[in-house]
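Design job #97: recover the sequence.
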């Protein structure tokens, strides 16, 4: 199957990252993940899980949170591992998603500033003309944020704000998460078993 890069930066939205990982692994894809220091802190706050920074331990913890086993595999890289495979354009991947994406990470990616492996992997994804999706979480959006998003869109990235839809009448927090992550995976070309598609208003009667 495919190989996707999953970046997790320091914005709120750890449950989105976990569900994205789950969807990719369930679909049989391999995942190369990298988590910023602030991203690990977000996981501690939002998920109650301490990610130590040890790649093998973090991989086990993330898979435990996702509650999924294969058929895809997960490899975690440390944030400053510039010798990692995903730091090079010669290492072929099928795309990358940064979820959640902080405005700081978004700004640095937009301006080609690779201050860590997450940002370098995103830069590589753009320069190799591969699919790059950023899932930024901030409100309200300032002019600088919006300009950076325009720059990224012009460079070929896609911006997917984590804005769940209510037209399918979600009944739980998980439904709201799935409505966002289902669309993320859809844009990566990955079929998500939990994505509910709109089939017409008559179905809601």
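Job complete. Output follows.
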């Amino acid at each position: 199957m495919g190989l996707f890069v999953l970046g997790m930066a320091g914005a709120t939205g750890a449950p989105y990252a976990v569900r994205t990982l789950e969807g990719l692994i369930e679909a049989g894809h391999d995942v190369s993940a990298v988590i910023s220091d602030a991203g690990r802190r977000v996981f501690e706050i939002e998920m109650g899980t301490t990610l130590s920074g040890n790649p093998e331990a973090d991989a086990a913890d993330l898979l435990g949170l996702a509650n999924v086993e294969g058929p895809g595999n997960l490899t975690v890289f440390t944030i400053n591992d510039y010798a990692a495979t995903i730091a090079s354009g010669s290492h072929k991947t099928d795309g990358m998603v940064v979820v959640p994406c902080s405005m700081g990470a978004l700004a640095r990616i937009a301006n080609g500033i690779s201050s860590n492996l997450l940002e370098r992997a995103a830069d590589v994804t753009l320069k190799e003309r591969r699919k790059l999706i950023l899932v930024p979480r901030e409100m309200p959006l300032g002019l600088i944020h919006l300009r950076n998003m325009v720059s990224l869109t012009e460079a070929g990235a896609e911006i997917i704000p984590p804005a769940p839809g209510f037209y399918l009448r979600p009944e739980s927090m998980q439904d709201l998460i799935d409505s966002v992550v289902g669309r993320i995976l859809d844009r990566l070309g990955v079929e998500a078993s939990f994505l509910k598609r709109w089939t017409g208003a008559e179905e809601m009667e």
